[in-house]
Amino acid sequence: MQRPYQRLFLNIAMVFAMAMSFLGCEDQYKRVGEEKADPVYPQGVAQDYVLRYTETVKALNTQDSSDTRLIAVLRSPVSEDYTNLRFKYRTFPKGLEVKHYDEQGRVSTIVADSAIIYDQTNLVDLRGNVVMETFDGKRLEAEQLYWDRRSEWIFTESRFTLSNPEEGTVLNGRGMDFNRDFTYFNAHKTGGEMLVKED
């Protein structure tokens, strides 16, 4: 009669030992960084996204009406809206094109492979094959370009090429900053070529 009880106790002891070994194998280190971060999802995704920036020609009171002027048109195949987060931003993972219109209606364009617009800092981060063309033919190419919308200042620390067909110049370098209409330009490390017309 003792044999069946011995076998039962042996089975219980084996199950208990196996359970203890499995519980002992659980990792006990604290997860940090990307391992710990919860996945972040956009609150909205827009396909064939088009956004038009306009401003009124004159200041308005509560019941006034006025004509508006088109300032810029932003187009992108996909826009992801993360403005539900504490640090609000919007991404354009499949690229974007921005057409900017000055007061005379002249058009300058910016294209990039991807972009992020940070709402709280008014900073636009353009990445991958960034090309900026002004209405008068200047062309800037860079791998990354930042645009501070509040101060209308553009800057980069990456390599760039700036060509000006009107003056016949090509400037290469790394790092620069300038205002939106290129009336002020500060290049950090440069080299280039300039065509000189002979008399």
Main traits of this protein?
about 200 residues, mainly beta, 1 helix, about 10% helix, six-stranded antiparallel beta barrel, elongated
Estimated structural class: mainly beta
The amount of beta strand, in percent, is over 45%
Number of helices: 1
Distance between the termini: 121 Å
Question: Helix share of residues?
Answer: 10-25%
Strands in their spatial order, largest beta sheet: 2-3-6-7-5-4
Mean of all residue-level pLDDT scores: 82
* Number of E strands: 11
Shape: elongated
What's the gyration radius in Å?
29 Å
* Uncertain regions spanning at least 5 consecutive residues: none
Largest sheet: 6 strands, antiparallel, barrel
Order of H and E elements: HEEEEEEEEEEE
Please give the structural blueprint:
Elements: H1 2-24, E1 44-56, E2 68-81, E3 89-92, E4 96-101, E5 107-112, E6 114-118, E7 123-133, E8 139-148, E9 153-164, E10 169-179, E11 185-194
Antiparallel strand pairs: 1-2, 2-3, 2-4, 3-6, 4-5, 5-7, 6-7, 7-8, 8-9, 9-10, 10-11
Structure summarized in a few sentences:
The protein contains 1 helix and 11 strands. It has one helix at residues 2-24; strands at residues 44-56, 68-81, 89-92, 96-101, 107-112, 114-118, 123-133, 139-148, 153-164, 169-179, 185-194.
Task: Write up what this structure looks like.
With 199 residues, this protein is mainly β. The protein contains one helix and eleven strands, in the order αβββββββββββ. It has one helix at 2-24, and strands at residues 44-56, 68-81, 89-92, 96-101, 107-112, 114-118, 123-133, 139-148, 153-164, 169-179, 185-194. Strands 2-3-6-7-5-4 form a six-stranded antiparallel β-barrel. It is elongated, with a radius of gyration of 29 Å. The termini are far apart. The model has no long low-confidence stretch (mean pLDDT 82).
